[in-house]
Amino acid sequence: MLITNFTTEAPEDVDLSVSEIIEKANKNVVRGTDEPFVIDDIAYGSEEEYERNADPCTTSGCMWPKSGDGNVYVPYKIHDHYSDREESVILRALQSIASVSCIRFIPRTNQRAWIHILSLNGCYSHVGRRGQEQSLSLNRQGCVYHHTVQHELLHALGFNHEQTRSDRDNHIKILYENIEPMMAYNFDKIETLNQETPYDYNSVMHYHRTAFSMNKEPTMVPIPDPNVEIGKAREMSENDILRLNRLYKCMKKGDRP
């Protein structure tokens, strides 16, 4: 397994949005032979799995199981090649999700299904639980930021990108004429389970206005107001938290079961 050995994040990336960081970190990367098939920052078991273009949470099921005490325990391991500072960033993101939901990340002992957080080539995660060890890559040279870790963890918990939502055409217009031709697949629409929550321009899962642009012009424009800011989240939004709690039926004050 290829492990990169960079020791710090790029300081110029600190003010970038999560999608800008991911796009930069994943640009022109070469995956190792033992890495999964990756499209953008989502890992698949195979190319055939990607081509099915379905949300695993609405088809075969991808949720982590709920315990009798009402919590959802997600085993994980952070690879020891991260520095103390990098590990603290990752742990803070894990705790930020636990603090607003019934998700509880626990160090893996002998569980069959677990998340292995390590520095491979770029930033990526599988969507939802795979039933075995699953890699969540946070490359040390550009992925270890609070909002980026939250983004990848939400993938691992079962969430896709906001702009791929089944109802996205009511909220954004995709400008394919500005998209790099080889990157158009990043805008494929998926039959997502939206948890009766509104489309959210401020979601940590939403990409920025010029994502995958070939000419620096917008690839996504909000509708009806084209001036609405999109893809600038620095952390999970209220809707991100709400739909996480609804998917896992966490009992939170002010929300329905």
Please characterize this protein's 3D structure:
The protein has helices spanning 18-26, 47-51, 84-98, 146-157, 238-247; strands at residues 37-39, 42-44, 72-78, 103-107, 114-118, 123-126, 133-138, 172-174, 220-222. The protein is an alpha/beta fold. It folds into 2 domains: 11-157, Collagenase (Catalytic Domain) (3-Layer(aba) Sandwich); 162-246, Collagenase (Catalytic Domain). Mean pLDDT is 89; it is low at 1-11 and 253-257. The chain has a 7-stranded mixed β-sheet.
Name the quaternary structure: single chain
Number of strands: 9
Average pLDDT, rounded to a whole number, is 89
Largest sheet: 7 strands, mixed
Query: Beta-sheet strand percentage?
Result: 15-25%
Taking all Cα atoms into account, the compactness measure Rg is 17 Å
Low-pLDDT regions:
1-11, 253-257
CATH class identity of the largest domain: Alpha Beta
CATH topology of the largest domain: Collagenase (Catalytic Domain)
Provide the domain count. Answer: 2
**Number of separate helices:** 5
Quickly give the structural class.
alpha/beta
| Basic shape | globular
H/E element sequence: HEEHEHEEEEHEEH
Overall helicity:
10-25%
Strand order of the main beta sheet, please?
1-2-6-7-5-3-4
Cα(first) to Cα(last) distance is 42 Å
CATH architecture of the largest domain: 3-Layer(aba) Sandwich
User: What is the name of the CATH superfamily of the largest domain?
Assistant: Collagenase (Catalytic Domain)
